[in-house]
């Protein structure tokens, strides 16, 4: 994707944030949350209505195909709290979107993977040259794909990279239009049935390009409703802790897995192994130096530098720390 195309896709959306739109919610205790289909424990609390019960807020849940779509909705003010990956988040805050990360949901591992089609004759990285690879642009998997190509010393222009949303990837794969794709659930489980994993984000992390998933909030909403973010952080920490303690014993028949599969649209059999491949930080770990206490801001800065080197961003922020806050998790810990 060239710089001009990237700007056309996202710059107008981020620009709207600069005019100071207020959160659009019908009542004082109503919030719209943008979520995605990633496999992770917060889906359990979402499915059970636990967030609503703990906070006392009415929540309008809106599903999005990509983090870039979530960021766009937050830029417009339609969504006040959102779930997004580190790459679209880095692009958003760099372009001036007034949002802040308040909870690191996951440090991505094998839950995002690069799959190549059986029979595509792709056995080594060099075999990717000339092939058609699909990925949602401005996503964590897009970032990971570009980082993997760089690691393999394959120029980006030697591979045909197609911008497709996860449902479109599954359809294109079914038609035989693409040779590979870097994506997450439920598309990942669908294409893996007739493909093989070439690499995962756990491996790309070892190559120096880590990715993460985060819960973020518009700053104006956060200032007006800190109680909701404290509650949200507390509940998310609780389900992450439950997974840390008991997740190794979860199977496709476990009620927790059924809840995650229902919200994400995944096959329950795909959920346990994907959960095992990712780290879900606990509430007490969030303020630490590796997460909201410094590491998250550093990761956003590093991701933005990479995006700029790939001509996806024109400028960088002098400091990414103001885009991250540990205030709400710290308050949740005290309660």
From TrEMBL:
Residues 30-247 form the Solute-binding protein family 3/N-terminal domain. It is found in: Periplasm. The keyword Signal applies. Residues 1-26 form the signal peptide. The keyword Signal applies. Transmembrane segments: none annotated. This is Taurine transport system substrate-binding protein. It comes from the Bacteria. Belongs to the bacterial solute-binding protein SsuA/TauA family. InterPro entries: ABC_Gly_betaine_transp_sub-bd, Peri-bd_TauA, Solute-binding_3/MltF_N. CDD domains: PBP2_taurine (cd13560). Keywords: Signal.
